[in-house]
């Protein structure tokens, strides 16, 4: 039984506890799903999560506008990740893909949000390029003004939901200034002529992922999100909201690894007693529990601080993401060790957690980058 005591922490309100309970019950009935065809699985997950109302926190409610509730986003990712990494992915991308529209979109652009929140449209966030992953400001893709339109040319890579998305938030160089100040954001529907999937990318924990070509993709000037030259600032504001939620997904994976380990150590007999009785195993389990609680404290501190109205939570979110993802990797590694040979058997839950966790230390700012961010924030 997963530890639920953290829900009593003062970071949460009763509505958060009720949401976590309702979602957990839904997950127990509906997850995990079959991962053999990730496109079909993700489309289906988005539709079902939407139908059940669980995608509502991912974007602005146009009928009742207000800030995104980061605690609900984190609780949802933690819970979904504990049950099924692909369900967490499907949820997370609906938020990341539309974050710029929620925060900076025009009312016309925000009409998309009713569909993404209902699971009727799938969204994606297209920032990274072959030459600019961590070095975002160095992007090559251009958006050139042509009359009432912009024409987008270049490539994006590592785009989650690439190939199945209905809309992309795309960042491109508009050239108001060199570097970070010359980038703008655009809402590009997937069926816009010239937008093509150049390559599908396969990774150790597969999900829909692609390299995209933009071959003179023409969009009206009204497709720009925010002002010309504000794209970098917009991308960072979106990551400021969603970065802690990556930590929350890692926390969900770590909690699952700990639960599986407690179960295994309690039931596996070794040298005439349960594995749990070996003190070295107890040492590992204590380290795992400590990492889980410490990660949860950092994540929900960051989420609470943002929800209380802090304009930016750069330091808190970087700490939460760095610690939770790095430590989850260690927690899961220990879980694999305590499971012995079963831990590396393809299809075993801890084997899949071992694969699922790895990319979280790379995307939305690699661990090394988070360290640079934290150091600069406390200088
Ligand atoms: C599974 C997955 C899904 C993704 N989904 C998306 C998506 O939906 N949309 C999107 O736009 N992008 C996405 N990405 C891209 C992701 O954000 C980039 O991979 C990430 O920013 C790293 O960029 P890079 O791969 O080009 O590595 P590089 O930028 O080449 O960095 C390589 C390594 O160098 C080190 N490093 C980098 N900068 C520093 C620094 N300042 N100080 C010290 N060390 C440093 C880090 O260890 C880093 O991992 C995804 C990536 C993966 C793996």
Give the topology:
Elements lengths: L13 H17 L7 H14 L18 H14 L1 H12 L2 H6 L2 H11 L5 E4 L15 E5 L2 E12 L6 E7 L9 E7 L5 E6 L8 E12 L3 E2 L5 H37 L1 E2 L2 E2 L4 H29 L6 H25 L10 H10 L8 H12 L1
Parallel strand pairs: 1-4
Antiparallel strand pairs: 2-3, 3-7, 4-5, 5-8, 6-7, 9-10
Characterization of this structure:
The chain is an alpha+beta fold and 379 residues long. It has eleven helices and ten strands. The chain has helices spanning 14-30, 38-51, 70-83, 85-96, 99-104, 107-117, 231-267, 279-307, 314-338, 349-358, 367-378; strands at 123-126, 142-146, 149-160, 167-173, 183-189, 195-200, 209-220, 224-225, 269-270, 273-274. A four-stranded mixed beta sheet has the order 1-4-5-8. Strand 2 (142-146) and strand 3 form a beta hairpin. Helix 9 runs antiparallel to helix 10 (349-358). The protein is globular. The model has no long low-confidence stretch (mean pLDDT 97). The structure holds flavin-adenine dinucleotide. Flavin-adenine dinucleotide binds at residues 125-128, 133-135, 158-160, 203, 209, 359, 362-364, 366, 368-369, 372. Residues 124-217 form the Acyl-CoA oxidase/dehydrogenase middle domain. Residues 15-119 form the Acyl-CoA dehydrogenase/oxidase N-terminal domain. Keywords: FAD, Flavoprotein, Oxidoreductase. Residues 229-378 form the Acyl-CoA dehydrogenase/oxidase C-terminal domain. Its cofactor is FAD.
């Amino acid at each position: 039984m997963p530890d639920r005591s953290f829900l009593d922490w003062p970071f949460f309100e009763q509505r958060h506890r009720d949401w976590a309970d309702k979602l957990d019950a839904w997950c127990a009935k509906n997850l995990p799903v079959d991962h053999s065809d990730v496109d079909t699985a993700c489309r289906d997950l988005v539709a079902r999560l939407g139908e059940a109302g669980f995608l509502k926190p991912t974007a602005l409610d146009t009928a009742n506008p207000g800030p995104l509730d980061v605690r609900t986003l984190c609780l949802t990712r933690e819970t979904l990740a504990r049950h099924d990494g692909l369900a967490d992915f499907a949820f997370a991308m609906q938020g990341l893909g539309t974050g710029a529209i929620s925060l900076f979109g025009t009312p016309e652009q925000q009409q998309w949000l009713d569909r993404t929140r209902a699971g009727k449209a799938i969204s994606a966030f297209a920032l990274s390029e072959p030459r600019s992953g961590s070095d975002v400001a160095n992007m090559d893709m251009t958006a050139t003004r042509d009359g009432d339109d912009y024409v987008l040319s270049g490539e994006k890579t590592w785009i989650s939901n690439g190939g199945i998305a209905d809309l992309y938030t795309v960042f491109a160089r508009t050239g108001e200034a060199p570097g970070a100040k010359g980038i703008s954001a655009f809402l590009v529907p997937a069926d816009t002529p010239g937008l093509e999937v150049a390559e599908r990318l396969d990774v150790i924990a597969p999900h829909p992922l692609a390299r995209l070509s933009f071959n003179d993709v023409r969009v009206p000037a009204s497709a720009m999100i925010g002002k010309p030259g504000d794209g970098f600032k917009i991308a960072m504001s979106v990551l400021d909201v969603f970065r802690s939620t990556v930590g929350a997904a890692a926390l969900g994976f770590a909690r699952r690894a700990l639960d599986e380990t407690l179960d295994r150590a309690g039931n596996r007999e070794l040298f005439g007693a349960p594995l749990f009785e070996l003190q070295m195993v107890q040492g590992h389990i204590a380290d795992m529990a400590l990492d889980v609680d410490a990660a949860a404290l950092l994540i929900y501190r960051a989420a609470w601080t943002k929800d209380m109205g802090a304009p930016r939570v750069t330091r808190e979110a970087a700490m939460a993401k760095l610690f939770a993802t790095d430590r989850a990797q260690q927690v899961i590694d220990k879980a694999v060790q305590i499971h012995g040979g079963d831990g590396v058997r393809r299809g075993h839950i801890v084997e899949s957690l071992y694969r699922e966790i790895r990319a979280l230390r790379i995307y939305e700012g690699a661990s090394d980058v988070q360290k640079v961010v934290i150091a600069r924030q406390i200088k």
